């Protein structure tokens, strides 16, 4: 009999330190370090980058939590608002994190008259690593499960699918770094391919309620369409439009 993974790594007095929080903190640290080093090497001011990173991380976490609660347990806003603060227990929206961090970064860069396109690209490493490590944290929290199936593994390994997406897109980022793509292209193409793979693969097997139940196969553990799949075409159109715009601004043919 397999022992279940404990979501708690250790205790500091009465405070329980969760694996999910540890993995999230590591991913944030890696993302911040990489962006900081690349930005400084590209001529950005130290104080500007430090302030930007703090603002983006704070707004990203806030956006991630609020989006998750809004789309999964909106009753917490009325019935149990303190539950919203328990980020360490899991429950963050990737889309909310990107949206919150991006809007905060865009506002601050415009306020200071700085270019955001290179910084968007450098953020891809943190986003990819975050997707990898937070999905591992989901394993410890026994969440983000795949649907049950008749196959030998009995349940789709949805967390590992998410980990694989992050690894693939992280490798793709460093590959494109050598190709000399226009500034800003890395970020928007990351959004495009992440959403495409997640919508087509991960969400199809994820044990998530169907917003528009056009197809469901209980034996195979396949379902369409979740909320994420419904919004996927709109996110793909936005990301693709931005990719084309970035290329045109750089005067590079599509």
Automatic annotation (TrEMBL):
This is Phosphatidylglycerol--prolipoprotein diacylglyceryl transferase. A 1,2-diacyl-sn-glycero-3-phospho-(1'-sn-glycerol) binds at residue 135. It comes from the Bacteria. One of its GO terms (cellular component) is plasma membrane. GO terms for molecular function: phosphatidylglycerol-prolipoprotein diacylglyceryl transferase activity. Belongs to the Lgt family. The gene is lgt. It is found in: Cell membrane. It is a multi-pass membrane protein. It holds the Pfam family LGT. It comes from Caldanaerobius fijiensis DSM 17918. Its main location: membrane. The chain crosses the membrane at residues 12-36, 48-71, 91-109, 121-140, 160-176, 221-241. Keywords: Cell membrane, Lipoprotein, Membrane, Transferase, Transmembrane, Transmembrane helix. Its EC number is 2.5.1.145.
């Amino acid at each position: 009999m397999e022992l279940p993974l404990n979501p708690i790594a250790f205790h500091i007095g009465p405070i329980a330190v969760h694996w999910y929080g540890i993995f999230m903190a590591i991913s944030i640290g890696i993302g911040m370090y990489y962006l900081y080093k690349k930005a400084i090497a590209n001529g950005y001011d130290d104080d500007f980058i430090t302030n930007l990173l703090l603002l983006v991380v704070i707004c990203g976490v806030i956006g991630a939590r609020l989006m998750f609660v809004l789309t999964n347990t909106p009753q917490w806003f009325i019935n149990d608002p303190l539950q919203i603060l328990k980020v360490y227990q899991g429950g963050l929206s990737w889309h909310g994190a990107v949206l919150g961090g991006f809007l905060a970064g865009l506002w601050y860069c415009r306020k200071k008259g700085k270019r955001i396109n290179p910084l968007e690209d450098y953020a891809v490493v943190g986003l990819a690593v975050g997707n990898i490590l937070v999905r591992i944290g989901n394993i410890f929290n026994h969440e983000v499960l795949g649907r049950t199936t008749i196959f030998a593994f009995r349940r789709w390994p949805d967390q590992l699918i998410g980990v694989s997406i992050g690894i693939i897109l992280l490798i793709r980022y460093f590959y494109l770094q050598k190709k000399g793509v226009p500034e800003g292209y890395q970020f928007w193409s990351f959004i495009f391919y992440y959403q495409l793979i997640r919508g087509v693969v991960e969400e199809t097997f994820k044990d998530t309620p169907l917003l528009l139940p056009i197809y469901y196969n209980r034996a195979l553990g396949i379902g369409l369409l979740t909320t994420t799949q419904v919004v996927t075409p709109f996110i793909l159109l936005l990301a693709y439009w931005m990719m084309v715009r970035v290329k045109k601004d750089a005067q590079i043919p599509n």
